[in-house]
Write a structure and sequence with these properties.
The chain is an alpha/beta fold and about 400 residues long. It has 4 domains: about 150 residues, Rossmann fold; about 55 residues, Dna Ligase, domain 1 (2-Layer Sandwich), CATH 3.30.1490; about 90 residues, D-amino Acid Aminotransferase, Chain A, domain 1 (2-Layer Sandwich); about 70 residues, Arc Repressor Mutant, subunit A, CATH 1.10.10. The chain has 13 helices and 14 strands. A 5-stranded parallel beta sheet has the order 3-2-1-4-5, sandwiched between helices. Helix 12 crosses helix 13. The longest helix has 15 residues.
Length: about 400
């Protein structure tokens, strides 16, 4: 018999990134508990067990957000669960639109998600809140390698700032290595020599969210080059408490995966926070139990939208009298206006935030009839301030 929510509707989670190892584990587990699972991935759904499987545009495609919105509406999804950080970064700004559909995002507030999707911003925020983290420094075209070595020591770890990018992690052992890695999208961190841990946890969403409902600590068995060959359960309470404190300090909820490593003195420090279901979730059945219990307890209702909130839904949506009329044009217009507002009308910076060329932005302004009067000059107010060449999260 299908377990249902109190209002009679079945549990209908929409899993983004279902083709990843963690996504496949989550879909299989929820389906075995008689949930109606909608599984979406941008590459492959091979091996995914779910009621609905669909190949969607990748998170880097401008059609991605609209596609997920339409899926949530079509199948009346109750919750949006992420097994792919890139998808979370794209969809978190549309929280109000999903709330109008009665779909809850298992992540956290937009500000927390933006910080959690960037390694440097995460380390900076946790450090400001008193959570132990490695000494971290953002890469730039003007940083002094000698000063960085004095601050962090050698060797150093160079990682991309976006959490979803794992392909360019480097171990730097000399100043010459640092000079070759002068890139604005990197974060340099001190190398912690102690053992590493992977903490899988779940923190229930909602205004009444308190502590952590489930937490499993896995100790990494590594080679001398830090390649993980095995994960084994650990009872290290200090690591568990530190990971839970980091999740609460950042204001994140839902399933989380947190990397912790010990310093030379044995004290643990948080090295990375990943929002969503991680690839090792199969080692943490308690987290899957807590996630499912949260889905079942929640009523599927129309969550109130804050006063003055904008929306890309027209009156003719499912809550009106006709079919959905959200269009890609509406989404692009909204994102372009938001980018221009955030950059105070500077088209060059707005195009950089949007991840498109300046000529493409001009073409879209002409196509959609946007005057861009507040963006007539690339020397608009605030243009003299330095702006990073990449966002903490992508807009489109």
């Amino acid at each position: 018999m299908v377990r249902k929510l109190e209002n009679g509707r079945p549990v209908r989670p929409l899993v983004v990134g279902a083709g990843t190892p963690g996504g496949r584990t989550l879909c299989r587990d929820l389906t075995s508990r008689n949930a109606f699972v909608i599984a979406v991935d941008g590459f492959s759904t091979t091996g995914v067990i779910a009621e609905v499987t669909e190949i969607a545009p990748t998170p880097f495609d401008s059609r991605f957000a609209l596609h997920i919105l339409n899926l949530a509406d079509r199948y009346r999804a109750t919750d949006l669960i992420f097994a792919q950080v890139d998808g979370l970064c794209r969809l978190s700004p549309l929280r109000r639109e999903f709330a109008r559909l009665g779909t809850r995002l298992q992540s956290g507030p937009d500000e927390s998600v933006r910080i959690g999707c960037n390694r440097y911003q995460t380390a900076r925020r946790l450090g400001d809140l008193g959570i132990p983290v490695p000494v971290s420094c953002p890469g730039s075209e003007t940083f002094d390698p000698e000063e960085l070595v004095h601050l962090c020591g050698l060797p150093l770890v160079a990682r991309p700032q976006p959490v979803g990018d794992r392909g360019r992690t480097r171990l730097l052992t000399s100043v010459e290595d640092l000079r070759r890695e002068r890139r604005h999208d990197l974060v340099f961190q001190e190398l912690l020599p102690g053992p590493g841990y992977l903490v899988e946890l779940f923190r229930s969403p909602g205004p009444a969210t308190g502590g952590v409902q489930a937490c499993v600590t896995l100790r990494k068995v590594e080679t001398e080059w830090r390649h993980v060959v095995e994960l084994e359960r650990s009872r290290d309470s200090d690591v568990r408490d530190l990971a839970g404190g980091a999740a609460i300090a950042l204001g994140l909820h839902g399933p989380l995966e947190i990397d912790v490593r010990r310093r030379a003195d044995g004290n643990p420090a948080v090295t990375e926070v990943r929002v969503g279901v991680g690839p090792s979730i199969d080692r943490a059945p308690e987290v899957l139990d807590a996630l499912h219990d949260s889905l079942v307890r929640r009523r599927r209702s129309r969550e109130p939208v804050p006063v003055g909130a904008s929306s890309t839904l027209r009156p003719g949506s499912r809550f009106g009298t006709g079919p959905r009329t959200v269009t890609l044009q509406e989404m692009e217009i909204r994102f372009i206006r938001e980018a221009l507002e955030r950059t105070r009308g500077n088209k060059r910076r707005a195009a950089r935030l949007l991840g498109i060329s300046r000529s493409t932005l001009y073409g879209k302004l002409r196509r959609y009839g946007l005057s861009g009067t507040e963006a007539d000059s690339d020397r608009a107010v605030g243009a003299d301030r330095k702006v990073p060449r990449s966002l903490d999260y992508p807009i489109v």
